[in-house]
Amino acid sequence: MAAMRLLHVIIILLLLLPAALLLVVVTEAQLSQGFYNATCPNLESLVRSAVHAKFQQTFVTAPATLRLFFHDCFVRGCDASVILASPTNDAEKDHPDNLSLAGDGFDTVIKAKAAVDADPSCRNKVSCADILALATRDVVSLSGGPSYEVELGRRDGRISTKASVQRQLPQPGFNLDQLIQIFAFHSLSLSLTDILALSGSHTLGFSHCKQFAKRIYRFNKTTTIDPTLNPSYALQLRKMCPLNVDPTVVVSMDPTGPQTFDNAYFKNLQQGKGLFSSDQVLFSDPRSRPTVDLFAATQSAFNDAFVAAITKMGRVGVLTGTQGEIRQDCTRVNQLFN
């Protein structure tokens, strides 16, 4: 009898195995490049047109949107939760680490969402999370970087809190081990090459002086300036960021070509011109230096690695199927409309 019961269990398990395998396949294929082909065939052109119009108004659109995507995916996954507003100022965007997110990034997504929903065939069918992913690709391309296919099918999250941001974002003073640890998302770990490629996005954008002031004024008890920082560059930074500087003053992350998505970031690291400690450590640490040298020497190698890395990042913690929702307004969950 025991043998018969065991055989019965084995048969049931074998019958269930194809369904289990199918579930795995479906889970891995939740995002796809042609997700909206039938429901919103003009999606990419609608988003691209809106992003281009915003880009022509101000270049800040590019780094602001790219940074918004990173900050969204780092916390709770790529679900556009960073865009949600809170009447009590308790959303992700209200956390101190997110207060420096430029408004142009938020505005880019909101305007692209409006353009998409103005098309009757697309209205309320495309998530803010997917629009942010598409807009990120478009600002990279508009800045001279690579264009690439974007996997789609994300749903929007309904939860956004300050508390969820705590210790989730990379910090300017991180060493390589800390960067590796924080980039190890969920069960999808990004490789060291991925980390360097994504760090290369610092070829665009800017930073407030307070983020790197310690490197040029009070590095430690015995050294005023960080010894890994190029001395002439440090003096240049001091001129732009004197002590007690206006907190609104910003400095370009890339001192040579801050409006072009290229491999100059890695060439700067070779010269000791990484603005953050977390930038310069990529060249200082022997584990990552060979990749810095490769990307500095070959633009195409950086481009290919960046596309692979940002595609991986876009899969982190996504909501799909019946999870989450498709927001009518990117700044509010749908229940507030009822």
From TrEMBL:
Gene Ontology, cellular component aspect: extracellular region
Claim: Calcium is one of the keywords in the record: yes
Catalytic activity annotation: 2 a phenolic donor + H2O2 = 2 a phenolic radical donor + 2 H2O
Cysteines engaged in disulfide bonds, as pairs: C40-C122, C73-C78, C128-C330, C209-C241
Molecular-function GO terms, alphabetical: heme binding; lactoperoxidase activity; metal ion binding
Keyword Ribosomal protein: no
Localisation: Secreted
GO biological process, one term: hydrogen peroxide catabolic process
Binding site for Ca(2+) 1: D72, V75, G77, D79, S81, E92
Keywords, alphabetical: Calcium, Disulfide bond, Heme, Hydrogen peroxide, Iron, Metal-binding, Oxidoreductase, Peroxidase, Secreted, Signal
Residues engaged in binding substrate: P170
Superkingdom as given in the UniProt entry: Eukaryota
Cofactor needs: Ca(2+); heme b
Signal sequence, start to end: 1-22
Active site: H71
Domain Plant heme peroxidase family profile, chain residue ranges per copy: 30-334
Family from the record: Belongs to the peroxidase family. Classical plant (class III) peroxidase subfamily.
PANTHER family (UniProt xref): PEROXIDASE 16-RELATED (PTHR31517:SF48), PTHR31517
Function description: Removal of H(2)O(2), oxidation of toxic reductants, biosynthesis and degradation of lignin, suberization, auxin catabolism, response to environmental stresses such as wounding, pathogen attack and oxidative stress. These functions might be dependent on each isozyme/isoform in each plant tissue.
Protein known as: Peroxidase
Organism per entry: Linum trigynum
